[in-house]
Amino acid sequence: MSEQVEAEFVECEVSLVRRAGRDVFWVELEPVNGELPPYKAGQYLMLQLEDGSLRPFSIASSPLQDVLELHIRRLPGHDEADKIISQLKHQNRVKVQLPFGNCVLTDSKRPAVFIAGGTGFAPFHSVIKTALWKNTNRDLILYWGAQTSADLYLHREPNEWSSKYDHFTYVPVLSGLDEEWQGRKGFVHHAFLLDHTDITNMDIYIGGSEPMVMSVYQDLLDRGVSKDSIHSDILDIKRDMGQLD
Asked: Residue limits of the FAD-binding FR-type domain (predicted)?
């Protein structure tokens, strides 16, 4: 577990809001004073909304950058996401509080596996990019699941990483109907379990919705993976609330 740093508020300029995929927006925030609080790849922030309430978003940018990048998904029937996107488009400045979370890359030399669903890829975008930029000598394996190829909103970037770095592997998996897709199909973690018979010597990170995370978590436990080797913000929050051992 990473050492906790006290979270602080930062005023940021909204420098970019653009559509990155079918229903995902890429947002960039630049600190007004030019400096960001120290944080680690894989952590998240709280975005202050117009009514003063706070909403969590994974930080998709690297701590080596001087900008905060968010991947925000708009879901049908979820008005709040529309309101957040509208706020970011029409307000020049917002406040964020950071850092939060412990889902960061450990110092282990074991292979690190990232199992992501949808925008659950966002924190792993930060972790993997930072590790590659730092020339971390460790196998990094990304399984990114989505319904259709359009939902793999940054598909080209991990493809480029896999071509450039021998120790990085990228496996995209689609669970929905996509007639043109020639790659892997099914549930993303099932693809991982099919590809690897011995997964007890890996550090495994899970990002996605709560039902997805809990399903993957249980299947990993059933395959003999220790709880200490499975990392997710959702799991940490549930433990803090006494809902998980």
From this structure: 7-106
Tell me how far apart the alpha carbons of residues 175 and 109 are, in angstroms, rounded to a whole number: 31
b/e map of 152-180 (b: 16 or more CB within 10 Å)?
bbbbeebeebbeeeeebbbbbbbbeebee
pLDDT at 113: 98
Domain count, the chain: 2
Same domain, residue pair 35 and 132: no
Assess contact for 102 and 74: CB atoms under 8 A. no
Residues 215, 244: Cα–Cα separation, whole Å: 14
**CATH number for 143:** 3.40.50.80
Residue type, 245: D
pTM metric for this prediction = 0.95
Residue of 76 and 127 predicted with greater confidence: 127
- The reply to whether 94 and 117 lie within a common domain is no
DSSP structure string for 8-60: EEEEEEEEEEEE-SSSEEEEEEEETTS------TT-EEEEE-TTS-EEEEE--
6 vs 11, which has greater pLDDT?
Answer: 11
- pLDDT at residue 1 greater than cutoff 50: no
Q: How many CB atoms are located within 10 Å of the residue 102 CB? A: 17
**Which residues form the domain of 135?**
112-240
Residue 164, token pair as written in the block: 């450039």
Share of the chain above pLDDT 90, in %: 87
